[in-house]
Structure formats: C-alpha cells, structure tokens
Design brief:
By secondary structure, the chain is an all-beta fold. About 5% of the residues lie in helices and about 50% in strands. Keywords: Nucleus, Repeat, WD repeat.
C-alpha cells in the first residue's frame, strides 16, 4: 500500500501482513532502500537477505561466514550494500565491506575500526557514509576510496545520522550529548551541541525526521526522546520496559508526525508527537523487537526479533502468507 496521509486511525489499524520465520537467530539490523521497494536484513546466522516489500517476497540470500553480518545499509544502488563485520576485526581490520548482492561479490574493504561498528549511515546525496564504533570513534568514508576520509574521536558509544538533505550530520553519545556538524566542513568541529539532561545512559540510535525538524534518540536503557533539530529542546519523551540483552529501535513515520518503538515486554507502541499521546499499542508474539523501521514511501513498517514481520493497515483482509525462502547463494 502506497503512503497516504497518516492519521491516528490509520496508525491504529496497522497489523501483521506477512511473517518470515526462517532466520537462524536474531536479526541484528535492517534497512530500506530510499527509492526502490527493497529491504535488507542482517542476522546472527551470518546472512544478508533482500526482500521485495511491494510483494512481501524474499528475493535473495547470501551468507558471510568469514566476517559475519552486523550493521547494514543500502548504498544508492539497489543491489549494493555496506555491511559491518563481526569477526576477525583485530587480525584483518576489515571492519566494513562494500558488497554487491547481485553477484555476491565484495567490491571494497574499509579498514580502520578496532572494535565493533554499532552505527552506520549512508549520505542521501553522494557516496559518503559514516560509521560509529565501540572503539570510540566515528569515521567518514567515500565508497570510491579505500582510505578513511576523516576520523572523530569521542567519549563512549557513538550513534550517527545524516539529515535528509545530507548537509548536516549528528553524532550522539553518552550523557545525552548531540553534536551537529556541517558535512562539508566537519573538520572545523560541531556548529552546535545539545544536551539531553538527566539521562546518563549511552545513546543506542539517532535519526532525523524526513522534514529535518526533529531528531529521535533511543538510549540503551530504553528511553526515547524527540528533540527539536534546530534548537535541541526536548519535544517529548517516552520510557519503556527494560529489555535484558536486547537494544530496542524506534522509528519516525515518513511525515514525522508519529514515533513507533518496541518495548522490553514485547509490545509495540505508537505515539503522536504533535500532541504527545500514545495512539496505539500492539501485542506482539515475536518477542522483544530489536529492529523497527517505517518504509520511506509506503504505509508499512517492519519489526524484527528472530522473526521478521511486515505491518500494513488492516482493512479486514486475512494476512498474506510469506513466500518460501529464495535459493541460497554460495557462502563467503
């Protein structure tokens, strides 16, 4: 279903439309392509899987046993991805790979990080991308070049995000500090710094709304904050049940009016942030949702634990069964 004007009623009608349950472990990361109807997932079974979201079909699966699969995002090309590594980081330094799902080929390695990459973001306007690592650094890269283009040393776990115009990027870190950089001259340092007071937890994730007016912070103790992206004031905040050993993810709807999140008790929640209030709560039979994103151009979101679920507005039709998995490709 294509994206229409969202309202409280449509959000409340969201229900599971398709389920994929053949993953060999927890889904670690997922992402939509910005313009094509495609979704990619990475999971604990070292797989990358490509889905056609218009038809709820799995179209490709590849395995990456040597490096593992952790954070993943699309480049601008519909079959090319950036994926972070889990294994052999200290011996090879190959912390990130640029790869083609079309022919299961690694196009380039990016070396530099000494520990796991926990945040990954592609520029919406060019071949630049950013990675934040537990080695307390953020590195800036260009898909066309092996060498790191810039490095920022920080305190604690960093989370990174570009705004939708690609002109600004944000880095969030422990203590609720958010630093904003001009992506064209980031070496001059941040042009603004916001502090979310009262929460000393590390930031798990940061996102900009599509209109650039808001930022969404999720902390490792399952607090969610919506900030004004221009001045840093807290618009609203939500506290959710703790989720032992699992970090939850929150997401904006494409219009920036709603925020959705999982919770440690296995429920899913949606809030209207213009008039802060909870508009929907769904019981969820797949456990604690670790990955959650709303599709860029559709009335659809996906939620994942060790099971992937597609959610669409329920108009009284029976849920569509998931297709059987696509043929497996040669492992790497």
């Amino acid at each position: 279903m294509s994206l229409t004007e969202l309202d409280d009623g449509l959000v409340r009608r969201m229900a599971i439309g398709a389920v994929f349950s053949d993953f060999g472990g927890k889904i670690r990361s997922l992402g939509f392509h910005r313009t094509d109807d495609l979704l990619v997932t990475s999971s604990e079974d070292d797989s990358l899987r490509l889905f056609d979201i218009a038809n709820a079909k799995q179209v490709k699966i590849t395995y990456h046993k040597k490096h593992g699969t952790d954070r993943v995002c699309f480049t601008h090309h519909p079959s090319s991805l950036i994926c972070s590594s889990l294994y052999n980081l200290e011996s090879t330094g190959e912390s990130l790979r640029y790869l083609s799902m079309y022919d299961n080929r690694i196009l380039r390695y990016f070396k530099g990080h000494k520990d796991r990459v926990v945040s990954l973001c592609m520029s919406p306007i060019n071949d630049s991308f950013m990675s934040g690592s537990l080695d307390r650094s953020v590195r800036l890269w260009d898909l066309r070049v092996n060498a790191c283009q810039g490095i920022l040393h920080l305190r604690g776990r960093p989370a990174v995000a570009y705004d939708q115009q690609g002109l600004v990027f944000a880095i969030a870190m422990e203590g609720g500090a958010v630093k904003l950089f001009d992506s064209r001259c980031y070496d001059k340092g941040p042009f603004d710094t916001f502090l979310v007071g009262g929460d000393t937890a590390e930031v798990n994730d940061i996102k900009f709304s599509n209109d650039g007016k808001s930022m969404l912070l999720t902390t490792t103790n399952n607090n969610i904050y919506v900030l004004d992206a221009y001045h840093g004031e807290k618009k609203c905040g939500f506290s959710l049940e703790a989720s032992q050993g699992t970090s939850i993810e929150a997401t904006f709807t494409p219009d920036g009016k709603y925020v959705l999140s999982g919770s440690g008790d296995g429920t899913l929640h949606a809030w209207n942030i213009e008039n802060p209030s909870e508009v929907a709560r769904w019981e969820n039979n797949i456990g604690v949702v670790s990955c959650l994103k709303w599709a860029p151009r559709r009335a659809m979101f996906v939620a994942a634990s060790s099971v992937l679920t597609f959610w669409i507005p329920n108009d009284g039709e029976a849920p569509a069964p998931a297709d059987p998995p696509a043929d497996q490709q040669t492992p790497q």
